[in-house]
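Course assignment 3, question 2. Fill in each field.
Student: A.L.
Task: Predict the tertiary structure for the chain below.
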Amino acid sequence: MQKKFQQISIASIQSTNNKPVKARVLATSGMLAAAMIMTGCSPTEATQNDATNNASGETQDVNLLNVSYDVSRDFYKDYNTLFSTDYQKTHPNSKVNINQSHGGSSKQALSVANGLQADVVTFNQESDMNLLVEKGLVAADWQQALPNNAVPYTSTMVLLVRAGNPKNIKDWSDLARNDIDVVIPNPKTSGTARYAFLGAYGYGLHQFKESSNENPVKTNDFIKKLLANVVTYDNGARAATTSFTQRGLGDVLITTENEAHLTAQQFAKGNVDIVYPSYSITIANPVAVVTAVTEKSGKTEAASAYLKGLWDKPAQELMAEMYMRPSNEQVLADHKDTLPDIETFEPVAVFGSWAEIMDAFFVDGGRFDQLASTK
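Answer field:
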């Protein structure tokens, strides 16, 4: 019998003082309520006030909401302080305040699509951005608005195991053994989980020399066995980390490189080890201004500056220090001791466009559902 359960979805919204406000993202009214909690007024009132101040030419404080994926919160907490200090130097009569909202990437995208008043979105999957383009919230040319197709850093998937690696887990193939319990987020709600699934699937195709489009029997059998070992599908990557480190579930957590390092250094120091698989997946983390919101509130300039600052060297250094792979090649090279060279593949090169990936693997009844339903 397959071992899994699913928790209720909770998104965490927090300001830069790192005091979280929990908001249950179940309906549009809940999301708008979350926005009101953070700003102290309704989104409509905030927009009207900002527009009035802009029209009168008065100086004003700027409040931005960054809606992001689950395990980026630690980086953006520090980057927000870095950006706010720099912004005030060039805007001495203004102060910028950044609020953060974090959860599974796709649930966050859906929250914005349903009314959460994000000024910027910082996701870990292109398809989540495409949803907002389709809704008319993000400009169609968002990838051309910033360097590197609007991807300031990348990451990859690694394996986090118990200290000393008692189950001797060395690669993806070990996760299909019948003595292994696996923890991952839910691919239906989490972009990180999709990368986890695709990372394992891509490894199988590579190992068995199969193609995703040509009935990869050996790869499918491998993935069936791996998914049969999953003991929990949490709604987001940080929730999965909690299940592994605090609840003691599983022998291995499939997670991003940066989350694994932060867990090993902070959340569960001395209790976990990191295993780099022989072949893994490249994770792109796209960012964009939600122009449909910022143009009404007069905050496009501040929102754009916030995202452009991600390519400044101090921000790129901060990424590397937090185990993200910065787009600045020199900064990445300077941190090769903690960000080692690894063999990875681009998901679009192996599986097709993100639209094709979503249709093939993650729609209801798609390949993930098929492989997760049987052992």
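Instructor remarks: Residues 156-283+343-372 form a domain with the D-Maltodextrin-Binding Protein; domain 2 fold (CATH 3.40.190.10). Residues 152 and 327 are 6 Å apart (CA to CA).
Grade: pending
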